[in-house]
Amino acid sequence: MSVLQAALLFLCQAIFTLCISVFLLRFCLQLSGFPSRNTITQWVGKITNPVIQPLRHVFLRVWKGFDSAAFLICLLLVMAKVFIFGWIKLGEPLPLLNIFIFSCGQWLQFTLQLYSLAIIAQAVLSWVNPSPNALSDVLYSLTAPMLNLVRRFIPPIGGFDLSPIPVWLGLQLVNIMVATPIMRASLWML
Length: 190
What we know:
- The protein is mostly helical.
- It has one domain.
- The chain has six helices and two strands.
């Protein structure tokens, strides 16, 4: 691989990851029922609305917090990334079924990474700046459903909330035991 190809792959990776992350963040925030009054949510909405709104007017609606338009755009971006990277690395396009299966695994992996980063960021932010702000509200909204479930079994001990540890470990296990095998299965089918 030449230096130019490596640079092109790096730029494509960065651009796709940023776009996927923004649409995935919108999807996860709407799934958690986070209000749109927050400055971070408004920023995500302004960036994603030009793509999401036309899809919503045509056929995709929000149903019980599930934003199908954001989900579809995110999955299509992951599929485009897999298609482009497969073509660049292998020199030929991958079969569509392989792209779809690999993309589903990678979408799950992106989602698990988003939640893992949110848990770590929330823990660090609670140590550094425990007062509420826009970022802490978003992180709380993303992580509260999982952390509250674990807090029922592991209450805070001496003022320390240990619930992020088993949740983070569980997310990593799902990544290893579900997302990675899905992606490997699509490569095995080649």
